[in-house]
Amino acid sequence: PSPEDSVAQENGEAVGTQIVGESDAMHVIYLTIGRAAISDETVLIMGESGTGKESVAKAIHQNSRRAGEAFVVVDCSAIPSDLIESALFGHVKGAYTGADTAREGKFEQADRGTIFLDEVGELPIEVQMKLLRVLQEREVEPIGSNEIRKVDVRVVAATNRRLDLAIQEGTFREDLFYRLNVVPIFVPPLRERKEDIPDLVDYFMARYAQDYDQSKATISPEAFKLLMVYDWPGNVRELENSLKRALVMCAGQVLLPEHFPELSGNAVSSVTKAPTGFESRLAVLMSERVDKFIESGVSSGSLHAEIRIAVEKPLFELILERTGWNRRKAAEILGINRNTLHSKMEEYGIQKR
After folding, report:
1. Regarding the domain delimited by 193-264, which CATH topology (the fold level of the hierarchy) does it fall under?
2. In sequence order, what are the beta bridge partners of 14?
3. What is this structure's pTM?
4. What is the pLDDT of residues 303-328, one digit of tens each?
């Protein structure tokens, strides 16, 4: 392919990035990155956590005309909902209690460069409306100011959520989705591109072996087989961390299965595992609900919402109770951010007892 059709590659790796792989899925991504890089259109990167969405965003920036300017990362799930607007658009001195000095927002910091909005699906609905205006008008208005400031920013967003479902649930604006989804990129989970694992292992071994005084480290065939059969729910990030941990723990120069204890008992695909007692009880619950719905003769309804509430509400209540109603800890255990937890508590009417 011509230079404008494909991102610069070398041995199956996007040059200057951490994107590695020779699978068909990765070649599609390289091609899309190259085409996205020559335009200024917004990009929406979709995929599970740990698949490398930020690396794709960096590759787009590094292969674009904005490569010499700032690449500003905003983790929308990590900023409290009452501070996210200020973080994105800035504020003037005295705009609110505690605003002792004026602060430039992330969009202004990214002027002439690229802003990466990670986990954009976690933005509060009112902030989504203001983001839509920025995308349409290319201008920001800091909190507490009447001054409109023009910004020249390339926007790349990412999410691990199904935004189509979020739109149906009313937690994400449909017009914002279409504004972001001009150039969609889907990064597949590692379990769907296992042919890339050898390249990834080589890449991470070469990258970290020197750091851990393991420059001559190799991996045994038995350990390598373990890496190949494991399903990697945490995707590339989990593989990277497993290899780093093994290099630290290895006293010799050969990584063995014993250096991957977290994988040894989990190498069988979750698809082939026998259901646990919990899964069996959950299946019974769903079966009862489905049978009842079908027997009622109703052609359409809210069966999905009913089952979701039946499962999620008691789970959230139990975790909150066990953590002493510490929302930060509860959100960590559930694997969601605090904004999502707060929204679910409001939706289900969950209150501290």
Report:
1. Helicase, Ruva Protein; domain 3 (1.10.8)
2. 9
3. 0.71
4. 777 777 778 888 888 888 877 788 88
